[in-house]
Amino acid sequence: MKFKLVISCAVAALSLLQVGVALAKPDFSGTWVLDVNRSFSNPAGLQQTMTVVHTGDQIKVDAKIKTQQGEQTVNETYTLDGKETDFAPPGGQAGSKGKRKAMWLPDGRGAVIDDVITSDSPNGPVTRKVLRKWTLSPDGKTLTVDYFFDDQRGSFEAKRVFVKK
């Protein structure tokens, strides 16, 4: 009888431990370098390094991006609370406005950042939607950012795979 009770308690404890591990959200903090060979549909010659500081539901990103057109620094903050906020689109043209909603994926498997950017053009307002899905490998050494773009030119996707430095 005592043996069955001990086994039952051990099984219950292991079950609770597994639930706790399953609900743990990833920590995206670190310095990440683009792995060009595992990425696709990006500008030719793209190089990118990101420094990410992740605290609770806030992610701060400082990125250095190099393309054939030159070098750009992007500094952004995402709050993963699911609330829509206004933001200034990086590298956007004057007068462009952005709305952002960032949230955790179900079960905290990653994060989604959903941007809607509106800018003026000679033909009237133009809207561009950018959705980014961030996921971290189980060992925490690979960050994958899937990009989904939708604008007047059509819809397309890109993938950027980063390795932890």
Note down, in words, how this protein is organized:
- It is a single chain.
- The protein is mainly beta and 165 residues long.
- It has one domain: Calycin beta-barrel core domain (Lipocalin), CATH 2.40.128.
- It is built from 1 helix and 10 strands; from the N terminus they run H-E-E-E-E-E-E-E-E-E-E.
- It is globular, with a radius of gyration of 20 Å.
CA-CA gap between termini: 53 Å
Judging by the overall fold, what is the CATH architecture? Beta Barrel
| Overall pLDDT confidence | 88
The stretches of 5 or more residues where confidence is low (pLDDT under 50) are 13-22
Number of helical stretches of at least 4 residues: 1
What is this structure, in a nutshell?
With 165 residues, the chain is mainly beta. Helix content is 13%, strand content 56%. The protein has a single domain (26-164), classed as Lipocalin (Beta Barrel), CATH 2.40.128.
